[in-house]
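Dear support,

Our group has been running a series of protein-ligand predictions, and this particular one with flavin-adenine dinucleotide is the one our PI (initials K.S.) wants archived with full inputs and outputs. We had some confusion internally about which version of the output was final, so please treat the block below as the authoritative record. The input we submitted was:
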Amino acid sequence: MSDRVIIIGAGLGGLTAAIRLAAKGRRVTVVEKNERVGGKLNHLSAQGYTFDTGPSLLTMPWVIRDLFAAAGRRMEDYIQLDQIEPICRYTWPDGTIFHAWQRLPQLIQEVERLSPADVPALFRYLAHTATIYDAVADTFLLKPFDGLREVLTPRLVSDGPHIDALRSVDAAVRSFFRSPHLRQLFNRYATYNGSSPYRSPATFTVISYIELTEGGWYVRGGMYGLAIALAQLCDELGVELRLNAPVAQILLHPGGAARGVRLACGEELCAAQVIVNADPRYAYEALIPGQTAMARRMARLEPSCSGFVLFLGIDRTYAQLAHHNIFFSGDYPREFAAIFAKGVPAADPTVYVAASCLSDSQHAPPGHMNLFVLVNAPTLGERVCWEREAGPYRDLVVAKLERMGLTGLGQHITYEQIWTPADLEARYNAAGGAIYGLSSNNRFSAFMRPPLRARGLRGLYFVGGGTHPGGGIPLVLLSGRAVVERVIADSP
Ligand SMILES: Cc1cc2nc3c(=O)[nH]c(=O)nc-3n(C[C@H](O)[C@H](O)[C@H](O)COP(=O)(O)OP(=O)(O)OC[C@H]3O[C@@H](n4cnc5c(N)ncnc54)[C@H](O)[C@@H]3O)c2cc1C
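Confirmed final output from the archive:
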């Protein structure tokens, strides 16, 4: 058997694992079903507009620097990261506006303007979430684990009370802030991993701490530049990258150990170690033979939300827009009940709008803007027929943006594309179109994610947003670091 490692999927998780393995001298083949690398981090160009089709906000940029350093490279020789300030502009239906800054004096000024009584609360909140970060960083983020036994250490027992896992994000946020606007704003961070603030444990308030203390970042030229840079690094390190090469099956020895993959074209590639960057639920259902029970178990777990995306090229500018913008709904609990309990799109959704042309002028022709519009949506289910509902829902979202200040938007659209959860599923084989794998809607969710080492299948591993520590660019890159440690440790 060769010493090669096969990686299924050239998403950020697959590319990270490939780079780290190749840097350690392993022979690596990455097979990707699509015509381009990047997975959910991807891009679209048409009629002079350029859109990042997935992530638009980068947090924890040091994780990327660490990846380049592991390959003996300087990140700055491949990509330039720009900090975006303010991080985000928030608009409420009552006309309230708030700019979230990483620079503390400006952030305090904004909180004081909105709700003076909440200024001391902000300090208390940041101190509280800093404590959570200290307690979880090592155990859950930086060293993702394979099983409960690994984390049940004396350290976790002593840190346990600090991780605030017994109440919800919303309960924690309420205990600090009086302003309903600030409560909604801080609750929103639960959506960074596709979850509901009313059900996910308050541990996830740590996301706001990370963003507000480390800032929000952007890859100059477009987020897709990160995927291009990682692919270039793969090439320099001798990784074999095969595009348009969907895997049809993972090949196992009779005892259950990995022996390679069969591509859809029928070709077989041999390797004693196979890393799956594709969505684990999809992999158990479609790629790994004899895993019906595991596939059923995965299907019972609650997925993260999906997304309804509009790519709009418009022939005018809106001076009020920042690079990142949120247009809030009037009833946040109702919105999450629609998405997670009823499985339908929210009637009054919170709408995210990114205008990367404000940081990269070549992303839209002069006098035009490229608007990436994202609304949280339920994963695919019986309650929604997107073929029928995509058009009306697009109209509802555009009308909402018009009501909240983007006057006349509908009349200025010169380019448009709609992606529903069905498109996300089809493009990336993401079960139900889930953006972040499983949801974190209960306090045990971290223990329900499929582990980095596939259970009972020697030589088979997972990497990416579907495994530990979770979804989003930085966590996916940390997942790549962790899986490589396992692959190397298990190597003959
Ligand atoms: C609309 C949207 C907005 C987002 N916004 C943000 C954001 O602002 N900030 C942030 O940090 N994160 C964001 N994310 C999440 C982030 O994009 C993901 O967490 C991350 O890119 C996932 O990387 P991954 O490697 O785990 O998986 P993926 O990107 O899904 O990669 C898996 C790869 O496997 C391939 N594959 C699947 N099946 C097969 C097969 N059978 N054979 C071969 N290849 C296969 C797929 O084509 C894909 O390329 C967003 C995602 C979306 C969709």
